[in-house]
């Protein structure tokens, strides 16, 4: 990756960021017009379409990678949910969006050194016996460099981009401008509280000391765990976080070339991590995309990046457990009453309880059968079922609310589902969930013999 000295920080101005994002559809329109002309003179329509998609994918990587911040986080989310798109549309973007997980355009070396000097002091090099200027990974608000700590340990040095906080605020402000439009399509959703919660949680992601506290908590409770590995924190400053290096196979490689056994192992370990962490750590890792996971040589799941964590001091929320139990039980009335009580259906909204159950049942299907295999095809079917406004079931979704305290849990549920489908993971997710939350088991469930 070549470094340029022309950039010192990421764009912060809302106008500049908006203009760069607007360049994506405008450029696509221009390429499409040229492509249409090429078809008129006899070139293959399928080849022209493929070339247009590939060039657009390259520009998506370039623009979102340069903007970083919330725009790039959106790109990382897309990298998970490409699994829901038809193959002919998703394929050209798959490799490009995967790069946004760990290989965005990096900052110039001189800017990296400047941040290190400001955060750790002019003698920052004294902390390291070796420091690699070329980043090992670049993501939405920071990039990671591999180094060797002064005591000989291999470490990951996470350095925040100058202007990252301002860029995130700018992107959130852009989203807020469209909140009234969202309200037209989803009248049951209170956008204000949701956006306020997103703002608070996203701003925590630029506080590296806050992130270090979450990571230290995770590392302590999962120390010597047979399934989960968390790197220990070595040093934390406002915009620099040093952790022990975690060597392993990136989950993106498991998705691209792993055996079915590797895929199944990754899927069940990610599920186990999310099922157990609220009760063990009082936290829920809320940034599930493949760039944040590794599979170690001993089969453990390595977890990275704790900037986005849902604080759950009382463990997994009891209302969510009740809703899951009622859905698995097939009790439409109890499910609907719980939705009303917990704010998933607003007081002035009336919905048929049976339609609410119909909406949810396929989404909890992995917890209703002894063995379930996730797939891109299943996710596409679900996306069409709940996303097509012509579908009666989809109309129910547009009338539901998302209480702000469940925003991150919803983000984790959607993100991990996308990852499972990319992995095509197969396993007994039902018994895995019920082993940690036996209280959600339906009355017809028989626990496996010990």
Automatic annotation (TrEMBL):
Keywords: ATP-binding, Nucleotide-binding, Transferase. CDD domains: ABC1_ADCK3 (cd13970). The keyword Phosphoprotein does not apply. InterPro entries: ABC1_dom, ADCK3_dom, Atypical_kinase_ADCK, Kinase-like_dom_sf. Residues 99-335 form the ABC1 atypical kinase-like domain. Coiled coil: none annotated. GO terms for molecular function: ATP binding; transferase activity. Pfam families: ABC1. Belongs to the protein kinase superfamily. ADCK protein kinase family. This is Unannotated protein. The lineage of its organism: unclassified sequences, metagenomes, ecological metagenomes.
């Amino acid at each position: 990756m070549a470094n340029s000295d022309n950039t010192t920080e990421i764009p912060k101005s809302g106008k500049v960021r908006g203009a760069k994002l607007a360049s994506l559809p405008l450029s696509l329109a221009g390429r499409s017009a040229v492509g249409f002309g090429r078809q008129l003179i006899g070139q293959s329509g399928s080849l022209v379409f493929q070339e247009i998609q590939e060039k657009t994918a390259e520009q998506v990587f370039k623009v979102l990678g340069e903007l970083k911040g919330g725009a790039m986080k959106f790109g990382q989310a897309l990298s998970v949910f490409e699994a829901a798109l038809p193959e002919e549309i998703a394929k050209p973007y798959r490799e490009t969006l995967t790069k946004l997980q760990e290989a965005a355009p990096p900052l110039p070396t001189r800017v990296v050194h400047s941040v290190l000097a400001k955060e750790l002091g002019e003698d920052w090099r004294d902390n390291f016996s070796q420091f690699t200027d070329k980043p090992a990974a670049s993501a939405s608000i920071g990039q990671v460099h591999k180094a060797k700590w002064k005591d000989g340990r291999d470490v990951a040095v996470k350095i925040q981009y100058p202007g990252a906080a301002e860029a995130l605020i700018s992107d959130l402000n852009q989203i807020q401008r469209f909140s009234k439009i969202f309200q037209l399509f989803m009248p049951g959703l209170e956008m204000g509280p949701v956006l306020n919660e997103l703002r608070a949680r996203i701003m925590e992601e630029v506080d590296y000391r806050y992130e270090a506290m979450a990571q230290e908590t995770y590392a302590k409770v999962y120390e010597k765990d047979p399934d989960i590995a968390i790197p220990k924190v070595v040093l934390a400053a406002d915009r620099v976080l040093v952790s022990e290096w975690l060597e392993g196979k990136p989950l993106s490689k498991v998705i691209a070339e792993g055996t079915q056994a590797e895929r199944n192992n990754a899927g069940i370990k990610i599920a186990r991590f999310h099922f157990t962490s609220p009760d063990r750590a009082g936290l829920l890792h809320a940034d599930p995309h493949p760039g944040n996971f590794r599979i170690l040589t001993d089969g453990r799941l390595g977890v990275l990046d704790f900037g986005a964590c849902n604080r759950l001091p009382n463990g997994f929320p009891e209302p969510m457990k009740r809703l899951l139990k009622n859905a698995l039980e097939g009790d439409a009335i109890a499910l609907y009453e719980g939705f009303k009580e917990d704010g998933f259906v607003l007081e002035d909204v009336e919905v048929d309880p049976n339609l609410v159950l119909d909406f949810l049942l396929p989404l909890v299907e992995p917890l209703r059968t002894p063995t379930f295999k996730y797939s891109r095809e299943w996710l596409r079917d679900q996306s069409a079922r709940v996303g097509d406004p012509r579908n009666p079931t989809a109309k129910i979704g547009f009338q539901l609310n998302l209480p702000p305290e469940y925003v991150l849990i919803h983000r984790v549920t959607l993100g991990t589902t996308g990852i499972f489908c990319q992995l095509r993971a197969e396993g007994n997710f039902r018994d895995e969930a019920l082993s940690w939350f036996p209280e959600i088991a339906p009355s017809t469930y028989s626990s496996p013999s010990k």
